[in-house]
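Hi support team,

I submitted a single chain yesterday and got back a structure, but I'm not sure I'm reading the token output correctly. Could someone confirm the output below corresponds to the sequence I sent? I've pasted both exactly as they appear in my results page.

Thanks,
R.
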Amino acid sequence: MYFYQQEEPVYMYMQGMSVIAGQNIDQGQFVAQYAGEMLTNIEADRRLAEYDATRAGVGHALLVVRETLPSGTACLRFNIDATRIGNIARFFNHSCDGGNLRLEIVRSRGSPLPHVAMFASKDIQIGEEMTFSYGASADSMEPTIHASQAGTLVKLKSSQRRRCVCCTKNCLGYLPGSLVP
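Hi R., thanks for writing in. Yes, this is the structure output for that exact sequence:
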């Protein structure tokens, strides 16, 4: 399905590059797969440090996903970097109110690598910005799914956090971080 007004994202004054719904999308409908390079934890940490050091981190799209196993005793981490190679999903911005998209981990039989699928978490109207929560708030511990384009993998001091510009009434002021190592 084609959900966007154009194939390229649009520029929004505060948020930067963004994706706008080109048609109405029903709750629960598949929207996109988050595509990019699958990285080891070591390579993901190296790239995050590189992006932060070069200020390229302002526009990078490294998604860190943590999945808690059904036993609750272990957490799997996988990293998808769409900064260099990716699709339109890398331009879905953060929203502190949870946005209108939800992430789901999907596995294909016979494939050891998971996929991150994005579905409409509520009805999305034509012209609405496509957003999702990049993760738990910086002061909570929610390791189930942590998605962070900002790459904040540890609890950060206020001076180290990136300012949030989601402009929702529930905006926390900063992009999410995580206490999960």
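A quick pointer for reading it: The chain has one domain: 10-160. Let us know if anything else looks off.

Best,
Support desk
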